[in-house]
Each structure stands twice: as structure tokens, then as C-alpha cells.
Amino acid sequence: MKKLTIILITVILIAVFLWIRIASDRPIDGISAATIQVNGNSMYHSSEGYKMKAGSLEVVGEVASPGMVSLEKLYMHEVVIKESKVINDSVEFIGAYRYTGYSLLDILNPFLLQKKNAEQFRPVIDTYIEIENAAGERIVFSWSEIFQTNNLHQVLIATGGSQVNPHKKTVDYPKDTDWKIVASGDLRNSRQLVNPTKITVRSFDRKEYAIQRNMKPLHSPSIKIVIEDGQTAQIDNNHGKDMRTYETLFYGMGMGYHPSGSFRGPALDEVLKGSVTIDDELLRTGLLCFVSVDGYRSIFSCSELFNRTDQVSPILDECNDESDGGRFRIFMPSDFFADRSVKALKEIYIFRVK
């Protein structure tokens, strides 16, 4: 009996040791418990999954310590996406998927930002990232849509997936074999990128905007739209456009909560209609810099502004206060922090990554 007890204790200890070893080697999951539950209610988790081949990835540019990305201790996340693209003004449906992978926020978080223009403009809101793959293709994201949005972890490097099946129809959607960038907030899959190899972090340097702190009055009567090829237009008023109203809790990265009323104005794409053509290439590689009369500015990607699954458009708020922040202001309802809401707008500069 004593011998049997010793054997049982030994077996239990070996099992515990092996379990700890396996658990320590396995990446920690931030995904849903439904992922590992068979025959549950979730339609997202009812089909067989598949794996994608992971590659190597480096982070370079304006960070303190450039280097290779280690995925070893990162959490896994999951997103669901209905994929489509536009061909000759017609929408082509590709498929519906659940993807699992590594969040761009988690990947970039250890690479501390070191802006080259920090002495002139300290806020991080004029920063963006370029992602390049082995074929030399590129896509862009603003730094803020990764780190300052209401919904975190929506941009992944997917290493696995499964299709979301309808009940009454058999479907077989195309599947990539190599890991890829997926952005669940995008309506069209313009920013999907297969086999990413490099992330470059940059701050805005296409134009010089002088910083004039404590400007009085802080006011700009109109906005100049400037496209990098030299094309220009001007916004003088919001009259005659459909207006939207957003309530908000205005919360800044520096001072926290600022009491504020509602913001009201037309959708930004409506304002820019006729001044810029928003095509697939601009959705992949386009960025907009919103600049105040005092030089304060913020960067947005074209896709986060005009390619949204949630259809929650940014607006151009109009305020007639000539002493503090009039006349126009960009308001992005999906931002957690208020810092990109540039007031006294003087210019919108539109450019692509080179």
C-alpha cells in the first residue's frame, strides 16, 4: 500500500511538472473562452480553424531601441471581419472570418517612442507607422488609432483564422497561408498586408508648421486643403450640408477631463467631396495632417477616417468664437483621448507614404 501511494504521488508530481512546463511555453491568451469550447452558441467559433505561417518582423524608425519583435510573451487576441474590396466601383465580397493573432498595440508597446521632432512638438499625435511586406507593399496606420482609440487591439498580425459560416449555405472562402495584417475597423480590406516584415515609426516631417504657443486670439476663418501634389481648395463654411451631433466626455492625455458640450457638424468626407478622390491606394497609404493656426497638429490615416465598419464618421465642428479655438475643429468620436481634436483649423494636408 505504501509503495502504491509513493507511485501515485510520483505520477501526480510528474503530471504537475509537465503541465507547468507546457503552460509556461504557451503564449498567454486574451481571446474568448468560446475559442476552446466546442458546440457553443457562438457562430464565430463553430468552424474549423487554420494556421498561417509566421515570419520575422522588425521595428525601426523613431523608437529608442529598434530591433526584432519577440512574440514569446505576447497575448493572443481575436477579431471578426467581413472582407470585401471595390473593383470598378463595384463591391466584391471575399469572405467572413474570425482571426486570431498578435495585437499591433502589444507588438509596439515595448518599443518606446523617441520622436525626432520632440523638441519642436512633443505630443505623440503627429506620429504614424508604415508597415512593409516582403514584396515591398506598404500600408499605414496613425499612432493614435493603435494607442488612443476607444476600442483597443483591433489591428492584428493574424497567425490563424476560421471562416464564419452561414446556417443555410455551404461556403468556402479563400484562406491565406502566411501571417498578415488585419484591421477589424476597416470596411474594405485595403489595409490587409500578407507577410509583413518591417514596421517603421515616423513623426510628421512633410511640411514645417511654426509653433506659436499662447496665441491670442486663436482663430482661423477658413481651412486650406493642400494635397502633396500641389492641388489646393478652401473651406469657408458648413452651410448646406447634413449635420451630425455627438455627445462626448472630453478627456485629454495631459490634464484629463475637460467639461464640454456637444459637437455638431457635417461628416468630414462630405466636406472634402470634390477636393480629393478617396481611392483604394489612398486608403492603403494615405494620411491627413490637421493643422491649427498656432502650429498644433494631429495625424489621421485615410482609412480610419473614411473606411470605417462602424460608419461613425468624424465631423468638422464649426464654432464662431473668435477668441478661443474658432472657427473649425476636427472631432473624432472613436478617440478615447481628446488630443487629436485640433481647433482653429488652418490647413488639412493630405499625403501618401513614399
Q: What's the CATH H-level homologous superfamily of the largest domain?
A: Oxidoreductase, molybdopterin-binding domain
Poorly predicted regions are 20-28
CATH topology of the largest domain: Sulfite Oxidase, Chain A, domain 2
Strand content: 35-45%
Order of helices and strands: HEEEEEHEEHEEEEEEEEEEEHHEEHEEE
- Helix count? 6
| Helix vs. strand class | alpha+beta
Mean pLDDT reading: 89
Instruction: Please give the alpha-carbon distance between the first and last residues.
Output: 76 Å
Roughly what percent helix? 10-25%
CATH architecture heading of the largest domain: Alpha-Beta Complex
Radius of gyration: 24 Å
Broad CATH class of the largest domain: Alpha Beta
Overall spatial form:
globular
Give your account of this protein's structure.
The chain is of the alpha+beta class and 354 residues long. It folds into 2 domains: 33-203, Alpha-Beta Complex (Sulfite Oxidase, Chain A, domain 2), CATH 3.90.420; 218-352, Sulfite Oxidase, Chain A, domain 2, CATH 3.90.420.10. The protein contains 6 helices and 23 strands. Strand 19 and strand 20 form a beta hairpin. It starts with a helix and ends with a strand.
